[in-house]
């Protein structure tokens, strides 16, 4: 065997991804090693996989909501090991939460969700700094101070109903911070992301549907007129499907280990058959959007159907 044969064999093995750089995984805590090996399947360099975990360990996340979505998201984040998690909720734990909010136990009923969430994260991963805010968000200024030094926002809060997405959208666009939104609708869950100055925002999405669907405004107006309180329809296994997608999308945005799935489009999961697909993309409307562009809110009737978005 000649020297050229050996070099050729090495080049072939390198091309097939068998040979990895001599980066040592021991610079990262053992609890994160499986994450690194997972990321390495997507990347050409093992060192890049280590750098991705380091990036996660340096990240500050703002998590809005500690219900069926947020409580499970918090558990997943604990395994990823961000430097800091700011958690926001105002609610107490009720017995009806226990079927889908697995962070909480029977003895926690009656306690603040923020209190128990802080306690449980500290047990799962003592490396993470947890900052709690027992707060009901009603306006943009409630949120703006919480965005200081935050790398990414995950929004799974649902009150005030319908309006909270516009409030959060306005805040993250103002502060130029990416946000992953998640919502569950009985048998389906949706994930979409807003990256200011890169994607359209939530108001752009409203404008988009107004433009392409002549029934959108009428349908939304009808939804807003419903005053009867609807019971929570949520199922633990379905929540796991949705929250896993939300957290993975946040990791994709933070680290770029893989292409995000929900930029300018909604990623939908069908809980019944496990299928997933992306909706047609929506655009960025810099000349028409009142939040991320130069448009005026009064030019779009859809925004009059929301509550007033106060600063």
UniProtKB/TrEMBL annotation:
A GO CC term assigned to this protein in UniProt: cytoplasm
> What is the top-level taxon of the source organism?
Bacteria
Tell me the InterPro entries matching this sequence.
Answer: ThiF/MoeB/HesA, ThiF_NAD_FAD-bd, Ubiquitin-activating_enz
Q: Report the SUPFAM superfamilies cross-referenced here.
A: Activating enzymes of the ubiquitin-like proteins
Any one GO MF annotation of this record: thiosulfate-cyanide sulfurtransferase activity
Q: Which Pfam families match?
A: ThiF
Positions of the THIF-type NAD/FAD binding fold domain: 51-290
- Fetch the Gene3D superfamilies from UniProt: NAD(P)-binding Rossmann-like Domain (3.40.50.720)
Q: What is this protein called?
A: Molybdopterin biosynthesis protein (HesA/MoeB/ThiF family protein)
- What organism does the record attribute this protein to? Streptococcus thermophilus
């Amino acid at each position: 065997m000649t020297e050229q044969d050996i070099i050729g064999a090495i080049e072939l093995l390198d091309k097939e991804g068998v040979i990895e750089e001599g980066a040592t995984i021991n610079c990262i805590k053992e609890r994160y090693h499986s994450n690194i090996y997972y990321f390495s399947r997507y990347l050409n360099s093992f060192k890049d996989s280590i750098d991705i975990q380091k990036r996660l360990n340096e990240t500050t996340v703002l998590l809005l909501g500690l219900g069926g979505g947020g409580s499970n998201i918090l558990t997943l984040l604990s395994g990823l090991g961000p430097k800091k998690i700011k958690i926001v909720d105002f609610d107490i734990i009720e017995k009806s939460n226990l079927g889908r909010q697995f962070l909480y136990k029977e003895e926690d009923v009656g306690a603040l969700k923020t209190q128990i969430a802080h306690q449980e994260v500290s047990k799962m991963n003592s490396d993470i700094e947890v900052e709690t805010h027992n707060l009901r968000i009603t306006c943009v200024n409630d949120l703006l101070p919480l965005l200081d030094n935050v790398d990414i926002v995950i929004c799974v809060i649902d009150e005030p109903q319908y309006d909270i997405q516009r409030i959060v959208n306005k805040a993250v666009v103002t502060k130029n911070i990416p946000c992953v939104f998640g919502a569950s609708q009985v048998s389906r869950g949706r994930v979409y992301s807003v990256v200011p100055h890169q994607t359209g925002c939530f108001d752009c999405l409203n404008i988009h549907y107004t433009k392409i669907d002549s029934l959108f405004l009428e349908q939304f107006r009808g939804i807003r007129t419903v005053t009867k309180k609807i019971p929570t329809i949520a199922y633990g296994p379905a929540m796991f499907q949705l929250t896993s997608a939300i957290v993975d999308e946040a990791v994709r945005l933070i680290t770029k280990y893989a292409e995000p799935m929900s930029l300018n489009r909604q990623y939908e999961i069908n809980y019944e058959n496990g299928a997933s697909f992306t909706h047609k993309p929506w655009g960025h409307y810099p000349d028409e959007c009142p939040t991320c562009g130069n448009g005026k809110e009064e030019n779009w009737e859809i925004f009059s159907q929301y509550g007033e978005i106060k600063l």
